[in-house]
Amino acid sequence: MGTHHRTCPLCEAMCGLEIETEGLQVTRVRGDRADVWSKGFLCPKGASIGQLHHDPDRLREPMVRDGDGWREVTWDEAFARCEELLRPVVAEHGIGAVTAYLGNPNVHNYSLSRFSGAVPGFGGIPVLWSAGTVDQWPKNLVCAQLFGGAWKIPIADVANTDLLVVMGANPQASNGSLLSYPDLIGEVTRIRERGGRTIVVDPRRTGTAEKADEWLPIVPGTDAALLLAVVSVLDDEGLVRLGPVAGRVLGVDEVLAAARDFPPEAVAVWCGIDAERIRGLARELAGTERAVIYGRIGLCNQEFGTLATWLVSVVNVLTGHFDAEGGERFPRPAIATMSSTARRRGPITTGRWRTRVRGAPEVMGQAPLSCLAEEIDTPGEGQIKALITIAGNPALSAPDAGRLDAALPLLDAMISIDNYLNETSRHAHVILPGLSPLEQPHCDEELWAYALRGVARWSPAIFDADDRPEEWEIALRLGAILGGTPAAEVDVDALDDLWFAARAARHGVDPASVDHEGRRGPDRIADLTLRTGPWGEGYGARPDGLTLERLKDHPHGIDHGPSTSAIDDVLRTTSGDIELAHPVFLDDLARLQQRMGEPRPPLVLIGRRHVRSNNSWMHNLPGLMRGRDRSTLLVHPDDAAERGLASGDEATVTSESGSVVATVEVSDELCRGVVSLPHGFGHRRPGTRTAVADERPGPNTNVLVPGHRVDVPSGNAAVNGVPVEVAAAPA
Q: How large is the average pLDDT for residues 190-209?
């Protein structure tokens, strides 16, 4: 029997776990009360990590397609088959016919967070696809323009604020997104206890709205107009104050001038929020000493995602709550992340290339994920012939998912680095499974860049993985094979040295001068980023500083306290100041005005999330799937009555791109004219091996999202606010 302390890798809260084992079995999981970060907080996902490890459907050995079935093979055989598949594609069509998709579990994995880039890096893949263009690309574009770096992301200082305005986020379910904070929903109660308020602006009365002091129901996709009206009130009533960033902001006059076309009276009906309440919101934000707007995924994945995301920081700046206590601030993580090493650069340009079929412009190196299907199924020069998916399930998560699901069998070669035979990997020719979270160490890297405390933690593996390779070794081998090295001749150690040397150079470290102390792979990079962080040992510069070995002596983590960066250390714009006004934002206001003048669809679809789920990752765990059905179609009582629907009925939901059948749940938690389906369902497909998920397959909401429906400046999918029709399903 043993007790182990480690970090939960299943969401951005990064809670500390206390895991009890007996032999090779996990017998109990609870929150680690001694953890310096989470202090015992735990959500249902973390409590189910033992079920994830023991899941009988989780793949342990590589799989190769054999006709319509599969067979387990050795790792050497699997990599040899990868070579057999990829080499003819590259020889005949060039490396441009090969691409890769990265899912968001990459960020949560000890190996892949540091090595997934080795596949395209050593393979020479010119174009990548990722979940980023579904859930956050507006955030990255805004930060690139305002602050000079796509990953220079400011964070809401919720621990010190007295007014928290939540837009497009539901921390009760997500535990925070691009905001790492344990028990974030508990902070709503603590804000009230210190005399503050929380306001939730959302089309749905979410779990967070239930906890908040006020819920402002808003029409989906109108957040940008609401925030522009707030800016117009700040200007009209002389409430603009820049506070700590006075003298460091360019473009204020241009932004104020643009907002004058959006007074509260002009947007109130369209947003569904009374004009006087909009004025009151502006006055509250300006009049509260410590206040902040926190906006997240619901703002990003709508038709005006870039405008809405931009205006969150605009309002925080104009009310004096940027770079201020209780406002929006830049973290100073204990681990030197990739974003912390970004160099100064000029304005971001987009459209350096366009996709072959649709002509969609690239934004920060990526195109809309919805373009992937057409690049596969449309013949012609440049057609994608081979795909490598890395910890992702785009057959469920990509917009216009039905088309992508139909396109994947057309590939000459498909390889999946994945632990499951799921809706996407069922189309692969080779599946290369990684380890369970409990079979490998863990030390979050990029996620600490979204936390306002200088915490670091490292967790050892609990169970032995025997001779199975870790994901970092798989990524290096696959990248080398794609780059032309015969599978039998790949030198993993030499590739690891090259990968580390490139990473060390970004941190200003000469790799030849580093004593690795026998470390390889992500261990060596973790040590590098700890040593070069603000509390690091600096390879001799600060002898008492942090190293990986010293961190290992603190199983509950080390907390260096509240940690924020000086704005001069963060900004990478050409001017060295916050550049608030850019054509990419201001030019899109005309599109917003045009949409405000058009008739509103009678019914639109939005997504939702549950605390027991993270996209489609954990739908195969019994502990997370028991209880009431969570894949229902929420319908407002009046909308249900008009269509003759009642709770428990089956309804057909139809958009221009597809149709699904869902079980109705009548609920007044939605605005009138809005229906809601959760993301991540659509299981029980032929050829999958996910027995628990198949018991409650649910409808795939992404079938209903038209591929062309994107936020224009960023190319991010507009999965919220999709016009739909709902009717009783045929008997």
A: 97
User: Using CA atoms, how far apart are residues 615 and 82, in angstroms rounded to an integer?
Assistant: 28
For residue 662, give every residue at least 6 positions away whose Cβ sits within 8 Å of its Cβ, in sequence order, or none: 631, 632, 633, 650, 651, 653, 677, 698, 699
Reported as a single tens digit per residue, the pLDDT across 44-66 is 999 999 999 999 999 999 999 99
Q: Which residues contact 63 (CB under 8 A, 6 or more apart)?
A: 70, 71, 72, 73, 78, 421, 430, 431, 433
478-508 residue pLDDT tens:
999 999 999 999 999 999 999 999 999 999 9
Give the span between the Cα atoms of 666 and 682, in whole angstroms: 21
- Asked if residue 360 belongs to a domain, the reply is no
Q: How far apart are CA 577 and CA 547, in angstroms?
A: 34
pLDDT digits (tens, 9 = 90+) for 635-657: 999 999 999 999 999 999 999 99
Same domain, 109 and 150: no
Q: How far apart are CA 691 and CA 684, in angstroms?
A: 8
- Asked whether 426 and 411 are in contact (CB, 8 A), the reply is no
Give the C-alpha separation, 364 to 257, whole Å.
28
Tell me the C-alpha distance between 263 and 247, whole Å: 27
- Residue-wise DSSP of 641-694: HHTT--TT-EEEEE-SS-EEEEEEEE-TTB-TTEEE--SS-----TT---HHHH
pLDDT tens-digit profile of 141-175? 999 999 999 999 999 999 999 999 999 999 999 99
Beta carbons within 8 Å of 731's beta carbon, 6+ residues apart: none
Instruction: State the pLDDT at residue 54.
Output: 98
> Does some domain include residue 405?
yes
Distance between CA 496 and CA 506 in Å, rounded?
16
Contacts of 627 by beta carbon, 8 Å cutoff, 6+ apart: none
Question: Are 170 and 308 members of one domain?
Answer: yes
Q: Are residues 82 and 158 in the same domain?
A: no
Domain count for the chain: 5
* Mean predicted confidence (pLDDT) in 524-536: 96
Q: Taking the CB of residue 215, how many other CB atoms lie within 10 A of it?
A: 19
Q: How far apart are CA 652 and CA 655, in angstroms?
A: 10
Is 362 inside a domain boundary? no
d(CA 11, CA 443): 13
The pLDDT, as a whole number, for residue 576 is: 92
Beta carbons of 263 and 252 less than 8 angstroms apart:
no
Domain of residue 427 covers 59-126+369-442+458-489
